[in-house]
Amino acid sequence: MRKRLLAVASGGGHWEQLAIISQSFDKFDVLYATTLPGLPEKSGLAPSVLVTDANRDRPLQMLLCAKDIAGVILKFRPNIIISTGAAPGFIALLFGKMLGAKVIWVDSVANSEQLSLSGKLASRFADRVLTQWQHLAGQSKSQYMGGVL
Questions:
Q1: What is the Cα–Cα distance from 42 to 22, expressed in whole angstroms?
Q2: CATH code for the structural domain at 4-144
Q3: For labelling, which of 44, 70, 75, 86 has a CA lying 20 to 30 Å from the CA of 64?
């Protein structure tokens, strides 16, 4: 039986980076989750679900996003969750870890000076935190394993 992987990313660059690494997900049953309609279809990534977009400046949206993510995780029951950011991915990693999934955070290539806020928070409980900048390896237990872009 193949393991189930939930791959989560907000729209824009976070999604583009997830799409790039998605080629390494072939041995899993994958469900993609994102915040913008049409992104999965445009990228050829399926099956997919939409979740509410959120950030720390929009607390109500964070609650709605958390509700959406919790529903996806409870229904799909992933063994592994991977995210390239941002807030929806962090929420997914948090819920996933509480339910026993292995969780992986891939910090955005745009964060070249320090880990993102979500990356720093994720490093507290993630099984693996990856940075795409070699000089950031070691910050908040992050590892460098090469850049996506």
A1: 14
A2: 3.40.50.2000
A3: 44
**Burial call 94-114: b when 16+ CB within 10 Å, e when fewer:** bbbbeeebbbbbbbbbebeee
Whole-prediction pTM value?
0.89
One-letter amino acid for residue 47 of the chain:
P
- Rounded to whole angstroms, the maximal C-alpha distance in the chain is 41
Q: Contact at 8 Å (CB) between 115 and 139?
A: yes
**CA-CA distance, 38 to 29, in Å (whole number)?**
21
Which pLDDT score, from 0 to 100, does residue 120 have? 63
pLDDT tens sequence across 57-106: 999 999 999 999 999 999 999 999 999 988 999 999 999 999 999 999 88
Torsion, Cα of 39, 121, 70, 84 (10° steps): 20
Measured torsion, CA atoms of residues 69, 72, 76, 78, in degrees rounded to the nearest 10: -10
Q: Assign 65 to helix, strand or coil.
A: helix
